[in-house]
Design brief:
- The chain has 341 residues and is an alpha/beta fold.
- The chain has one domain: TIM Barrel (Alpha-Beta Barrel).
- It has an eight-stranded parallel sheet. The chain has a two-stranded antiparallel ribbon with strand order 1-2.
- It binds zinc ion (ZN).
- The site of zinc ion (ZN) has 3 residues, from strand 3.
- The site of zinc ion has 3 residues, from strand 3.
């Protein structure tokens, strides 16, 4: 894997950011669980920024982002992403959550998430969505790799219709590997609730959703930590095979995991199988929270901790899934030279 030209210069680059906000994370913050109060991190929260809604408004052919509010019955955030970051930080405080991965949920919206991470560097990790088929994709990855506010890159092959094993992705993955960006790869069933609610078509292609397609890629890039959300979202067996063969593959547990109905599974059996095959250290708790006024989806924490409790896991084991595994995911990223904050 070749080093990038100018790599060292990029490492030295410091990103200007405003001073951190007053609400630094409270080290005592804990969430309620069946074991009592425990620290909780969330590996999967969508940052539905003003830019995100503005893009949908253009597709829906309404005047502006705010015009979507009454159609969705959701709160549309102001243009300044710091305001939305404040709302999320408030939600985390209310629910006793420490840190969450914020996912920029439209391509080219990394600035919104980066601004949120600048404002609350000890509450948020930043993920950006990349469509690798766009002409500026490589430049975006280069810029993100040298920005300490961004920690992971999110790929949605079925949404943007490419194979994760497409050779055109290699230069982008080389940069992710060199800079220890986590790479999130959506596999399995995919639907975007907000598009459905607005009646917007989604020309997705599930043929690009198979976790097995990630197998040669995960082997080729052993330094990259790949995160598969929702236990593979319906392709659980394939995701387990991939995780068994590639120690750099992680699952996030997020969402209601509605896909379980395809296989007549319940959360307890899903956790049991995933822990048996991958081990407890490669599972990352997540909710898939996204919009306001709902905010942080505490019901998911309740469902998942109940399942783990019923399986007989103690608080130490549960805490790895709920908290420490996610922090370990970014250890290399945040301690890599000047990328360390
Ligand atoms: Zn999601």
């Amino acid at each position: 894997m070749g080093r990038l030209d100018g790599d060292r210069a990029a490492r030295r680059m410091r990103v200007e950011r405003p001073p951190a906000r007053a609400t630094r994370y409270n080290r005592r913050s804990m969430a309620q669980t069946p074991w009592g109060d425990l620290p909780v991190n969330d590996a999967h929260v969508h940052f539905f920024s003003h830019n995100f809604y503005a893009g949908l408004a253009r597709q829906k052919k309404v005047e502006n982002a705010q015009a979507l509010g009454p159609l969705l019955n959701w709160e549309i955030p102001e243009a300044d992403p710091i305001k939305l970051a404040e709302s999320w930080a408030g939600e985390l405080d209310r629910n006793g959550v420490r840190r969450v991965c914020l996912i920029a949920s439209a391509p080219a919206d990394e600035e919104s998430v980066a601004a949120a991470v600048s404002a609350y560097p000890d509450r948020f990790f930043g993920y950006f969505m990349l469509d690798p088929l766009q002409p500026d994709a490589l430049d975006r990855v280069k810029a993100a790799a040298s920005d300490p506010r961004l920690h992971g890159m999110c790929l949605f092959p079925a949404m943007h219709t490419y194979s994760i094993a497409d050779r055109r992705l290699i230069p982008m993955l080389e940069i992710a590997s060199d800079h220890r960006l986590a790479v999130f790869v959506h596999c399995g069933a995919i639907s975007v609730g907000v598009r459905k609610k607005l009646g917007l078509p989604s020309q997705f292609d599930l043929r690009f959703s198979n976790p097995l397609d990630l197998h040669p890629v995960a082997l080729h890039f052993p330094q990259i930590r790949f995160v598969i959300p929702h236990f593979g979202a319906g392709l659980f067996r394939e995701a387990l095979m991939l995780g068994d063969l590639c120690p750099n593959v992680y699952f996030d547990t997020s969402s209601s995991n509605r896909w379980m109905m395809y296989e007549d599974l319940d959360l307890r059996s899903v956790f049991r199988r995933a822990i048996d095959v991958l081990g407890i250290e490669r599972l990352l708790f997540g909710t898939d929270s996204s919009f306001f006024p709902r905010g942080w989806n505490a019901a998911i924490l309740k469902q998942q901790t109940t399942a783990l409790y019923e399986l007989g896991f103690d608080s130490e084991k549960a805490s790895r899934i709920l908290q420490s595994n996610l922090e370990r995911l970014f250890e290399a990223r945040v301690t890599n030279g000047t990328l360390k904050r």
